[in-house]
Amino acid sequence: MTHAIELTVTQKRPLTPSSVELTLAVPEELQTNFAFKAGQYLTLIQEIDHAEVRRSYSLCSAPSQNTWKVGIKKVSGGTFSTWAHDVLKEGASLSVLAPQGHFIISPSAEDQQHYLGFAAGSGITPIMGMIQEVMALAPLAKFTLVYANQSPEEAMFLEELKLLENNHPDRFKMILFYSRASVQNTRFGRIESGTIKHLFQNELAGVTFDQFLLCGPEQMIQTLKEVLPQFGASADRIHDELFFSSAEGALDVKEGQCALTIVLDGESTVLHIDKNTPVLDAALKHDLDPPYSCQGGVCSSCIAQVTQGQAQMIKNQILTDSEVAEGLVLTCQALAQSDQLTVDYDQA
User: Fold this and answer.
1) In 111-178, where does DSSP find H-type helix?
2) Beta-carbon contacts of residue 129 (< 8 Å; ≥ 6 apart)
3) Is residue 328 part of a domain?
4) What does the pLDDT look like over 122-168, one tens digit per residue?
5) Is residue 314 part of a domain?
6) Residues near 283 by Cβ (< 8 Å), separated by ≥ 6?
7) Could you give the count of Cα atoms lying within 13 Å of 98 in the half-sphere of its Cβ?
8) Residues 60-75: pLDDT tens digits?
9) Model pTM greater than 0.90?
10) Which domain holds residue 127?
């Protein structure tokens, strides 16, 4: 489902001085469309200062709870997060796209895996849902969380996580890092190369992990991807979601025009665009309504299938090599490399 649905905010719960949790009411007749897997996100749409603003926020609830909750941290200069934190009231309606995202797990009663999660700041939101789902559905599985914040006061879901640890002492363990506070039974510092190696040589020494789940800023994730293989983590068992990406890709931008065909909701539209214009920008400029959210190559809302011609992405932190080989592109990052290009949102 690519079209937004109006949902009511039934609860706005403060988590920290700079973050809130929103509970959204999904009518029973829409719950099949809004079914989700632990780790997925919702795209929220709101008109703010006479402009439409879209942002993706991870579901922090577990699918087994049959609730739809997102965590939002107010960031400096963040249009939507500031509005949600300061202005949004309970009872208000938000336009919401159905759950999306590839950063997922699907635990079951037979699951005996040991998950290791790394989260920094608001990166805890999708992992919070994952932990709850593992604890609820996989009694033989374990979860270890390494969670970094500036201070306990800024740590989202800290009390809920402590309760989970108390309720499941043999299955859930939490290791806390604070970069601006010294707290008993926690570590001082950040999730970086030295601290990761120290963990595996001490608290995590001799422990076998099956899946590695990373969520937070780009530098943390890049560091983890470099260090974790030194301790037995193969690339196919490392899964991540960026909450911010700064990397610009190297791309040979073509000159000239392209005949771009966009297939959306069963209809084809032909546009004549400059090759240096991203596909998503062209679609929006011509008043089409494709799915999108971040417009920065961080989420996966705008994925489409290239069925004719060639396109390359400015940057890509989402799609795997095999998905790119199959012709999938992030349309917010996709530039035409051929004179004719067809992208199909319906096939993605």
Assistant:
1) 124-137, 158-167
2) 38, 39, 58, 59, 60, 61, 62, 63
3) yes
4) 999 999 999 999 999 999 999 999 999 999 999 999 999 999 999 99
5) yes
6) 262, 264, 271, 290, 331
7) 12
8) 999 999 999 999 999 8
9) no
10) 114-244
